Structures are given as C-alpha cells and as structure tokens.
C-alpha cells in the first residue's frame, strides 16, 4: 500500500487538492474507509453519492447492466436504460415544459452543451452569456469562463469561452454589505445591476442566456431568494433571453426538494443536472423544451460516452430509491437536526464570536466564519490541510476526529453535504465532532 501511495504522490497530476498520504479503499453508506482509518463522510464526493457509498440496489443495477450492454453509442440508437431514465425523470422535473433530455458525462459538459443550445435555439448564434459573481459551472476550458467563485480555475490559461459577463448575486458579504442587509434590498440592487449590464455592456439582442445556480455552491452555499429568481425570469421573458438553471449540485433531493428551483416555482428554459443523478456513476444531462432541441442540427449534440448504459441503469435505480425509500423525508428530518446543532454553536457564548452566518437548504448547508469578514481568502483550497483561517482549522480538527468536511468559496466557509440517507445516529455523531472541534478552535489564541 505504501508503494502505491508513493506512486500516486509522484505520478498523479498535482493540480488537485487531496489528502495525499491515504488511500481510499472502500465506501459504505455514510462512511469512507482508507488504508489507515475510516471517516464519517460529510462530503459525498462533493455532493455526488447522495444515496451513500455503494448503495446495494444501485450496485446491483449496475452489475446487471454490465452483463447486458456496457456502451450504447447515443449517435447510433436508443438504448433501454437511457429511455427508462427519461421516463423516471419526467414526473419529477421542476416544470412540465422540460420534456427533452440529452445525457452526457460531467457537469461541465452539460453546461457547455446548455450554452450551445441556448445560442442556437435563441437565434443569437454569438450571443453573450451572463453568469453570477461567485458562480461555479465547471473547470473545463469553456465552463471555467462561467465560473466566478475563485480565479484559480482559469488563472494563467487564457480567457476560455468569449462573450461572458458577470452580474452580482444577492449575497451580502460578496457585495461588501453587512450580513444584516435586508433580502429585498439585496435583490433590488442585484436586479438593478443586471438591468445596467444589459443597458451598458451586453444588449438584450446580443444576450443569449443568463445562467445561475439556485443555491450558489462553490461561491459559499447561498440560496438565491425567490424574488430574485422571479426577477430574472421576468427580465428573460421581456428580452428574449434564455434562463439556464444549473442544478448540478442542488438537484436530486439535496435541498429537501427534488430540485431547488421548486422552492420558487421559477421555470428554467434549460436545466443542467449531474452529480446525484446516478450516485457516483458518471452522468449528467441537459433538459429543455423539445421545441428548442428540435432546432439543433443532427450531429450537433453527441459524445463518445454520453448517456453511458451502466450510468443510466444506475440512475434509473436511484430514481426508484428516491421514491420508495422516502429520501426527501429523511433529508428534512436530518436537516432540522443539523441546523439546530449549528444554530446552537452560533448563539453559544463561547463560540458565537466565530460565526458570521449559517445558511442553506436541506442537506446543503454552509457555515461562514468571521475570519474573512473583511477580506476574501485568495484561492482558498477546498482541502487545505494547514490553513490559517477558522474554517480550515475546524476542518483539520474534524478530520483528526474522523469527520470529513470541505471548505468552499473565497470566504471562510465550511459546507455540509452528507448523504441524503444519513441516519439520525450518524448525524448526531457528526454534529458532536463538529461542536467539539469548533469549541477547541474557539479556545485557541
């Protein structure tokens, strides 16, 4: 094992943060086992293994598919799991107009194809795309141009996809405003700035789409106010602009509803999905109206491994489990327990001075600490083992105690993304470790 770890340290590309002295050997439910220890996993592969590691029903579905058809190329013909997955997803779409599906491998691929569809179907072939300050839409060359959470994803590699503009997202800290700023004031200012962008930088006739996450992820786990989403929808309708909603991380039950956009009821023109769709098997998708995809020339959408049969079969079983095992009910119950524990720390006389904010939906919760209350942390790593900020120190202590958490954003934020199947006892254990770690950090000079 030591030899394998040394090989990895020497030969695996280093442009990725990771724990470099352990080998992940096994995943089981809410737990990750390494060559040395096991961790209660509150990261889910960054929101991927929503149903826990190696859910037996998903494993069985994938094993059976391996023996039937591994690769059914999407440009040649339909295959059964692909179409079955569409049948499972149609009833849970956030709006009935979303009736045309195209499956790919990764979130970045889905985002780039969503942009392609938006530009082609809107008739604005070279149309600009407006994204949000603090957004994350991927690290590939095109998608990284839409990612504004941190500069590290596109630093010193050029500008990527052209025609990208960023507009403020209603997040007080990011706007340089007090945390106590009323939500309606944040929304008002952000919608005004978007109107100014359309008046001064990217005319509506030159703007193909606006893209955003309904809960901004890598930017700090900040839910978009419903009034802001309704304001975007109105601006898009008034100016013939497509609204792309990226639910790569917030979809498939993560926020307590199948899709976070259900909280507002706002209709996306194009929906981007991935992560929890197949519980770890590579799969993503673009969902839109058939009238839009009918405008795409034959052959303009495709990909060698797009909509892989094994991944789709896993996705079908995930959809069954979501319904039959009442996963959303568990999310709501565990979310209440997690938020209660975090709010307790936020108001405790010994620890409240560390907390700037606790926010989120379902089991997509962010805790922002005060150490970045004045300035952001330049390119903070999601897995920095020796940080100086409060969140990083808390993360390190949690890891030492057997709880795996991730930091996120340019600010000092820890994100909670445990499995949606996490038990009451496991949640209690995770909260206990987090509380102990925060209290230890609070006593440090």
TrEMBL record:
One Pfam family here: Aminotran_3
Instruction: Give the cofactors, semicolon-separated.
Output: pyridoxal 5'-phosphate
Keyword Transmembrane (UniProt): no
Q: Read off the SUPFAM superfamilies from this record.
A: PLP-dependent transferases
Note whether Cell inner membrane occurs among the keywords: no
**Alphabetical keyword list:** Aminotransferase, Pyridoxal phosphate, Transferase
A GO molecular-function annotation: pyridoxal phosphate binding
Coiled-coil spans in chain: none
Q: Which family does it belong to?
A: Belongs to the class-III pyridoxal-phosphate-dependent aminotransferase family.
What is the name listed in the Swiss-Prot or TrEMBL entry for this protein?
A: 5-aminovalerate aminotransferase DavT
Q: What is the organism of origin for this protein?
A: Wallemia ichthyophaga
């Amino acid at each position: 094992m030591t030899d394998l770890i040394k090989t990895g340290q020497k030969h695996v590309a280093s442009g990725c943060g990771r724990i470099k002295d352990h080998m992940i050997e096994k995943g089981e439910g809410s737990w990750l086992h390494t060559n040395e220890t096991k961790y209660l996993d509150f990261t889910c592969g960054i929101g991927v293994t929503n149903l826990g590691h190696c859910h037996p029903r998903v494993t069985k579905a994938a094993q059976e598919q391996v023996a039937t058809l591994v690769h059914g190329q999407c440009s040649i013909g339909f295959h059964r799991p692909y179409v079955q997955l569409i049948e499972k997803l149609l009833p849970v779409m956030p709006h009935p107009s979303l009736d045309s599906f195209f499956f790919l491998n990764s979130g970045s691929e889905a985002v780039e194809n969503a942009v392609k569809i938006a530009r082609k179907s809107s008739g604005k072939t070279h149309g600009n795309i407006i994204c949000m300050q603090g957004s994350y839409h991927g690290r590939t060359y095109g998608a990284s141009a839409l990612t504004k959470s941190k500069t590290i994803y596109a630093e010193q590699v050029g500008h990527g996809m052209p025609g990208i503009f960023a507009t403020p997202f209603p997040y007080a800290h990011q706007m340089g405003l007090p945390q106590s700023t009323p939500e309606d004031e944040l929304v008002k200012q952000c919608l005004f700035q978007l109107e100014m962008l359309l008046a001064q930088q990217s005319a509506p006739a030159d703007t193909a789409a606006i893209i955003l996450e309904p809960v901004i992820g890598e930017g700090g786990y900040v839910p978009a106010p419903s009034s802001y989403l309704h304001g975007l929808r109105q601006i898009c309708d008034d100016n013939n602009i497509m609204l792309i909603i990226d639910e790569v991380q917030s979809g498939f039950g993560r926020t307590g509803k199948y899709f976070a956009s259900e909280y507002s009821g706002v209709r996306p023109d194009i929906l981007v999905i991935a992560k929890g769709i197949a519980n770890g098997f590579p799969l993503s998708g673009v969902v839109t109206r058939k009238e839009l995809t009918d405008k795409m020339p034959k052959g303009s959408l495709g990909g060698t491994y797009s909509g892989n049969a094994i991944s789709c079969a896993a996705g079908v079983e995930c959809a069954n489990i979501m319904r039959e095992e009442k996963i959303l009910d568990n999310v709501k119950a565990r979310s209440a327990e997690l938020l209660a524990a975090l709010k307790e720390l936020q108001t405790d006389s010994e620890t409240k001075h560390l907390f700037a904010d606790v926010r989120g939906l379902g089991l997509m919760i962010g805790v922002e600490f005060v150490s970045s209350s004045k300035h952001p942390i330049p390119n903070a790593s999601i897995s920095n083992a020796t940080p100086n900020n409060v969140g990083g120190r808390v993360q390190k202590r949690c890891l030492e105690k057997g709880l795996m958490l991730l930091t996120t954003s340019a600010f000092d934020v820890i994100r909670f993304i445990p499995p949606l199947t996490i038990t009451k006892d496991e949640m209690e254990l995770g909260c206990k470790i987090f509380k102990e770690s925060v209290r230890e950090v609070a006593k440090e000079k």
